[in-house]
Amino acid sequence: AKQPVRVAVTGASGQIGYSLLFRIASGEMLGKDQPVILQLLELPAALNSLKGVSMELNDCAFPLLHGIVQTDDVNKAFEGADYALLVGAKPRSKGMERGDLLKANAQIFSAQGKAINSNANKDVKVLIVGNPANTNAMITSHFAPKISPRNIHAMMRLDHNRGISQLAERTGAKVDDITNFAVWGNHSATQYPDVTFTKINGKDAKSVINDDKWIVENFIPTVQQRGAAIIAARGLSSAASAAGAAIDHMHDWALGTNGSWTSFGVPSEGKYGIDKNVWFGFPVTATKGDYSVVEGLKLDEFAKERLAITEKELKGEREAIAALLD
Ligand code: NAX
């Protein structure tokens, strides 16, 4: 039998946490043969609620759940962690400026980066879910110099899954029949969901859809604005779908994608001309524990424009918190 791995989750008693933890513990993230120890971090005010969530986790009697740590101590949460899902963040409150939101979160993610650096396993795999996810990933990495930047990812998978779902609905194809789709850039409304290389049952998606206007005027904005549409309908932000995307991202990273594409927010290494040291959504393939950005794609003018817009936003976010990176 496999030894248990340690999975740290921050913001564990929030709404994403409430969907996420049960699926990690049931083996959906790392495999049905991989026991886990959950190390759950919350703010002091939420520890009581976290206790309730932990009681429920125990009440599921998951065979793979070999232990739960509940704590408000960031060092304890990341101790020996093999995986870390950074979900907890400061939400935007009424009247708060975007710059203030960036700074408040920069504080959280710099502290957590330091704690990961001193306490986690050196090959820990970190997924940033808390927004602004890409810039939070950059900050975390900055303060965790012992961890390879390639091991700190921002979550683009929810956008990716939203895109696949829209394409399936439009064309009547099954989700699994849609390949080579990707979301580039920031996890924000400037992201670029790209169907240029996408295949549906092996056929060029653009010719199957046969309506470029729908792609530009309907598909792209629907995916970009999906978060707001969920809030408008549900009165709360996406939670179960966000948790599902986090499970998918970690699953594919840990176990590989068998050559298929997915979208990871990873440090730019300058590919496709993207500024280095922003965390950018790219099409990737993953093999057990590692990934590669898909290379050699020929970007059309439309794509270049879209990439420039989302890159500019990320550079602006980086500038807004630059003073905190010293
Ligand atoms: P909730 O407000 O329900 O839960 C957040 C939890 O984090 C709370 O329980 C809070 O006590 C805790 N927390 C806050 N600061 C903390 C800290 N410093 N250390 C430990 N715990 C802390 O939010 P939820 O709906 O779960 O969303 C969490 C984050 O995910 C938000 O930042 C949200 O914007 C982001 N999202 C990111 C998505 C993505 O695709 N990357 C999509 C969904 C979601 O909007």
Highlighted features:
326 residues, six-stranded parallel beta sheet, 19% strand, 14 strands, alpha/beta, binds ligand NAX, L-malate dehydrogenase (NAD+) activity, Malate_DH_type2
Would you mind describing this structure in some detail?
It holds the Pfam family Ldh_1_N. NAD(+) binds at residues 11-17, 105, 129-131. This is malate dehydrogenase. Catalyzes the reversible oxidation of malate to oxaloacetate. It is an enzyme of class 1 (oxidoreductase). The protein is of the alpha/beta class. The protein is built from 11 helices and 14 strands. The protein has helices at residues 15-25, 47-59, 74-78, 98-119, 133-142, 157-171, 205-209, 212-224, 226-234, 240-255, 301-320, and strands at 5-10, 36-41, 65-71, 83-86, 125-128, 152-154, 178-179, 182-184, 192-194, 199-200, 203-204, 262-267, 279-287, 290-293. The strands form 4 sheets. It has a 6-stranded parallel beta sheet, with helices on both faces. Strand 10 (199-200) and strand 11 form a beta hairpin. Helix 1 packs parallel to helix 10 (240-255) and helix 6 packs antiparallel against helix 8 (212-224). 42% of the residues are buried. The model has no long low-confidence stretch (mean pLDDT 97). The structure holds ligand NAX.
